Amino acid sequence: MYHTILVPIDISTPELTQLVVPHVKAQVSLNDTARVHFLTVIPIFPYYASLGLAYSPEAPDNEMIRSEALSQLTEAIKPFNIPKSRMETHLATGSPKDRILGLAESIQADIIIVASHRPSMATYLLGSNAAAIVRYAKCPVLVIR
Ligand code: ADP
Question: In what residue span(s) does the UspA domain sit (predicted)?
Answer without folding.
Answer: 1-145
